[in-house]
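User: Can you predict the 3D structure of LacI family transcriptional regulator? Sequence below.
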Amino acid sequence: MTKRATLADIARKVGVSESTVSRALAGSELISDDTRLRIARVAEQLGYQLPVLARSVRGAKTQVVAHLTDTPTLEFHARLAQGLHEAALRHNHLLVTHPSPPDGFREEQYLQILSALAPVGVVATPTTSNLSLIQTLAQKFPLVTLDRDVEVGLHAVLLDNKQAMRQGIEHLVELGHTRIALLVGKDPMTVSFERRQGYLDSLRALHLPIDPSLMVREEFTEAGGYRAARDLLDNRLECPFTAMIATNGDMTLGMMRAVKDVGLKVPQDLSIVGFDDSRYHLLMDPPLTVITQPAYEMGEHAANLLFDHLDHPEVHTARVRRMPASLVLRKSTSFVR
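Assistant: Sure. Here are the predicted structure tokens for LacI family transcriptional regulator:
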């Protein structure tokens, strides 16, 4: 009977301690990329299996689901992961979450590290920087995309982005706003296009004029939101508007900082609608009205979609689930004065 490889075997061959091997295989950022790669290669050569893969939970074999996520800077990402994690546990699987590899991290390095986990499947959030990696992962593992679509025939759980924007626009129009500024991402991912299109479709449906100067495309980051908002606010006399809406959580933070820096009062001078909810929005002055995504449920559905795919591998048709957004009304919007 062949002896199963151990952490000690890997440690001896690489020339590091067992604790270093353990941390590397768990994805610890305390271990350098070079060391992690060497350990992953040796683990694969020796046929090492993580202990969790052989552990029994209520009589069933526990296996790993890998979760490749965008940088988890906001509560939205944490709620996605929570929904995934709890759904995975109900299927006796362990979720291992890892951020997208940094710039300069070679794709083959990441694939070797991921392969050492031997996941039964992957749930991934596509970005412009990891799109090639995700397309490669889809050829190696059952894969579901979460939050963003790559339009290459993969299973996906997404927000209904057009419906989300429609809720925000209709709310502002009900308050008498007809000049509504938009902060939207400029990356080529479908989420940016769909939220911009939702804004345009809503204005057309409400028979309101479309002014291209009120739409600013920027990075989907706090800094991008700040730049976009300042561009609009600094030109407000030449191109007036009474309300502003952001299209992701990071941009919302930048937008609020810009409004504060120019000294405008919300909602007296300007009505504001943010995107994605956070407990910190309740602490803002005034508390922020937001379009919120059902993050936990999106993560939960992504996990269930993956397990359904694993149970029925003969079904090749991609399934896409779009989840509705909700509008949380607080104090940052008011009737036009």
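The mean pLDDT is 86. The chain has eleven helices and 14 strands.
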